[in-house]
Amino acid sequence: MEVMQDQQFVEQVVKALVNHPEDVRTERTVDEMGVLITLHINQEDMGYVIGRRGQTARALRTLLRIVGAKNNARVNLKIYEPDEVRRARQERMESEGRSDRGDRGGRGPRPNRDELEDIDTSAVDDLKI
Asked: Rounded to two decimals, what is the model's pTM?
């Protein structure tokens, strides 16, 4: 099977990011929605590919869309996560009282009312907008 340019791009970039490049594998499927590249990696490398708050994965998807646009194709990336790993992560997040996206989307826990009353706002009290 011929490896397409978009698929080759994903493999090359991801192999440069991870500790186990030998485990990087992609599957390419084409349907009426466009091209879907499914990325399989060693689970220990998941954090490197996703990045903090998903920034690395988002950047990779953006670049992949540009590569696809150059070839007049709509290309999307799916990072494969085995069901048992996904289930374990969701259970851990739920037991910690967090959603799948982290506390408030990565902004940390919400301050309680007492903490809000202790915030010094004198620097902006006379601010005219």
From this structure: 0.66
